[in-house]
Model the fold of this input.
Amino acid sequence: MHTLVYKKLYYNKKFGQNFLKDKKIVKKIINFINPSCLDILVEIGPGLGALTEPICRIVDNLVLVEIDKNVLYFLEKEKYFHKLLIFNQDVMSFNFEKLSIIKKSMLRIFGNLPYNISVKLILYLIKFSNYIIDMNFMVQKEVANRFIAQPGSKMYGRLSIIMQCYYDIKLGFDVGANAFSPTPKVQSTFLQLIPKKIPLYPYNKINFLKEITFLSFTNRRKILKNSLLHIVNKKIFLNLGIDIYLRPEDLSVIQYCHIAHIFYLYKNKC
Done:
């Protein structure tokens, strides 16, 4: 039998919970993360402990961020509970910088992320990149494919550009829907995100990159001449070697960084 069995399960739909139950997948994830007893590990959304328990066999202390008090009720009954430092709060308000400073170490973050917050959370974590070694997450397969999409492909877009600016992305393996309970309607991928030591665009100016990519991809059918010329001069495009008759999916990540920088300079002159 390769599934983890729980006597009682309480699913809260608003938290997008799909608990991991396949023991083979759990073992594969642990091998992929390759945790060390010296690591400061942070698990986001531990669920009913499918990953928490085997990680606690390796480390003496594990930080958990979990919003659902019902989940914490289950974890309180486990033998490894004394090893846990638990923050019962919304991860979108959690201060990873503060935790890193308290622990006097950079963090390794992992988790089987709820699909409804995965992208939002990963983008939120960008600002804590200087305090993170790596992040190992289960996400929707389609989202993982968007992360790594290259210029010219249908999947390439805002998310591809922003992710590739700030992270080195390593796809691990795909996970079928039957590995979870309740069973989701989508396939999943386990992956690793390593913050770039030198990002392609500064963290503190990310809003300019977000705005440029938003304007570009709001209507993918529009050429750059129609989507960006009202904020970036035609001559600047020529200086950057960018054809204004290209569509947004035709530009590289670096080219979007250059445009965002020009946009930043323009805004600061106004």
